[in-house]
Design brief:
single chain, alpha/beta, two-stranded parallel ribbon, elongated
């Protein structure tokens, strides 16, 4: 019995010794692996990755919403900025935390799409007159109008349908305005709000990047003044001389625009008595009117025809439904219209999703057999070079 107990104990001690050696060997290998990961591993590979495309500037309020909002949209703290399909948490750790997601921020380049020839800096000598309301456009001594002088030159390709894009509501939000100026092709026309801070500076910057410019005129909406389009809104209830005074104030806020477009204005567009003096004043100033096409039962075409004002209506508002897929469908509709009519004009607004879809779509336009044209060309302006 004594010999048997001694033999069994030896076997047990041998097993325990082998087990301890195995644990030591495994621990040595594990320590080596941890050390290698510590010295040579990638910390960022430890969790899922989230990539966001952000504009480099984030100053200022949401963009002015043409025909879809009041000036309350200019309040940086106002609710109701449209969802662009991206949800942000209340807080994202900069380093992802322990085992958390790693966020990589990809800045959208602020370089121009290409290297466009800068348009002449405004004002161009001979195409403005100094007044108490500011520098107002006028026909030059050579007979050229401001529309001709400030429009972007364009050479049409025979037989190729052309499409024009306008981005409106610019000047109120820095990041969106910079994106439109720097990221979109120079053939895209930019439309500026007259109430923007440093409006002339924005127009100068846009023209330096090759973009021609429109000035937005606030006009009375059906639910004015609940929809507040600003202190110089053109009103159906105002006397003609008051509307002309307001018009001069608006036009005198900057120079360099080849024409004007409407901001709001559904009610004003139905009142010929109010609209006709404004149309005549724009004609006398050598400008054109490019309407966004939102107003039903508009008398503006007839008023423009009576006064001889060059007047064009855009074919589509392409971002009435604010999603990338909806905008793409509207752009395809513009392509069909361009084939049918030889040209088409689309209007969008200063939303990031609109600017981004315009940029992507324009990159492949030539390969589809279309020509991107400034809106002035589709409106029939024949540009003649004007020296600054």
């Amino acid at each position: 019995m004594s010999a048997s107990r001694t033999a069994d104990g030896s076997v047990l001690r041998t097993g325990l010794s082998q087990f301890a050696l195995s644990i030591a060997a495994f621990g040595t290998l594990a320590a080596g692996a941890v050390g290698a990961a510590f010295f040579f591993g990638d910390d960022d590979a430890g969790g899922p990755r989230i990539e966001l495309a952000l504009y480099s500037e984030q100053n200022g309020p949401p963009p002015l919403l043409k025909n879809r909002s009041s000036l309350e949209a200019l309040d940086a703290h106002a609710d109701g900025e449209p969802s662009l399909g991206v949800e942000y948490g209340d807080a994202l750790p900069e380093d992802g935390g322990d085992g958390g997601a790693v966020m990589t921020v990809t800045e959208i380049s602020t370089n121009a799409v290409n290297a466009p020839t800068a348009l002449a800096r405004a004002p161009i000598s001979g195409y403005f007159e100094r007044t108490a309301a500011g520098d107002l456009p006028k026909t030059g001594p050579d007979g050229r109008t401001p529309a001709e002088a400030y429009a972007r030159p364009f050479a049409a390709t025979p037989g190729m349908p052309r499409i024009s894009l306008i981005v409106g509501g610019l000047g109120m939000t820095q990041k969106h305005t910079l994106a439109a100026i720097n990221e979109l092709p120079p053939e895209v026309t930019l439309s500026f709000v007259p109430y923007a801070n440093d409006l002339q500076g924005w127009i100068n910057r846009a023209r330096a990047a090759g973009h021609e410019v429109l000035l937005e005129l606030p006009m009375e909406a059906y639910d004015y003044p609940n929809v507040d389009s600003g202190p110089q809104t053109l009103l159906t209830s105002a006397k003609p001389e008051e509307n002309l005074r307001r018009l001069n104030i608006l036009m005198g806020k900057a120079t360099g625009y080849f024409g004007v477009t409407n901001y709001q204005g559904a009610r004003f567009a139905t009142d010929a008595a109010a609209a006709t003096p404004v149309m005549k004043a724009l004609k006398d100033r050598g400008l054109l009117f490019l309407h966004d096409g939102a107003a039903a039962r508009s008398v503006l075409p007839q008023a423009a025809n009576q006064t001889g004002l060059d007047f064009t209506v855009a074919d589509r508002i392409v971002d009435a439904e604010l999603s990338a897929d909806a905008i793409d469908r509207e752009l395809l509709a513009l392509e069909a219209l361009a084939i049918q009519n030889g040209k088409a004009i689309g209007v969008g607004f200063a939303y990031p999703v609109t600017i981004e879809q315009f940029r992507i779509w324009a990159e492949g336009l030539k390969a589809k057999g279309y020509q991107l044209a400034p809106a002035s060309a589709s409106a029939g302006v024949e540009t003649r070079a004007a020296k600054p």
